[in-house]
Prior knowledge:
Layout: H1 3-24, H2 26-32, H3 40-66, H4 71-96, H5 101-129
Amino acid sequence: MSFRVSWGTGIALTYAVFALWCTLQPTSTSQTLGYLSLSPSGQSEYATVYGGMQCGLALLFTLFAMKPELRRTGVLAAILLYAPIVLYRLISLTQNAPLETLTYAVAALEVTMLLAAVAIWFASTRHKRS
């Protein structure tokens, strides 16, 4: 199994775990992330974004990992997804610190995923030119 397949599968599994965790334990996960309470509309939004969207991203990255012709597209998709997330995360960390421990852990995971995607992109570009 190539590194790109392992990386893509890892991203897919990460999203799947978060989707399940947030879907099965929405109160504890939302409170751990800093949402002290959610109205019914907030609960609906939380389930949709933290459950549904992450489940969709898990399926998308699974497809990218399993189809060789889509792996490079998957890496680019990850860069395009994580670059603005990391930018917004870093701004929010500086504006809102101190934050919950899980928020810092998620931020570290997002930065790691972005850096890995960028490294894979440049390594595969260099390999393609050789």
